[in-house]
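We emphasize that the prediction below concerns an isolated chain of 172 residues; any contacts that depend on oligomerization or on bound cofactors are therefore not represented. The input was used exactly as deposited, without trimming of termini.
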Amino acid sequence: MNIDTERVDAAILGLLYLTLHEERRAWKSFDWDAMGRLHAKGLIYDPVNKAKSVTLTEQGLKAAEDAFREQFARHPDRSDVVQYGGVAVEARPAAGARGVLCRSFADGLPFFRVYAADGSFTDYAVRHEELSVTIDLEAEAAFYMLGDAPILDHSPRVLGLPQADGGRATGA
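Result of the prediction step, given as a token string:
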């Protein structure tokens, strides 16, 4: 079998990062050839000693963190192809996406509008009814009580709403 030692070294470096303790020390129970290559690259100090752990160099610590993220962290910008509704589709994590929750005038159904840097946008149909929504601090939004009906809408400034009877409400 032809082994890609660069990938092996990257995986081991990522696992060294996973077992870090005392800031730069990691358990060294890995293939000795790989440990020798990491030492030759200046990423770890000489692993040949009586200690059960090895010390990463400054360069090795950074490389280990990068390798760990690449090999083992979930990447929100990466997608998977999955079966959705009986069809193979691309699934990309939506966590952290910023957009605007809207309702269609045509059919009254909600959709989530996500803007790109160039101003273009994609409207996503909302099919999950228990999504957590956080309103941005900069959002021009407000909660209103219209009788017993709680409403979320644009801010009074955006809607151009005038102050009523003295301006400020007092209450609970």
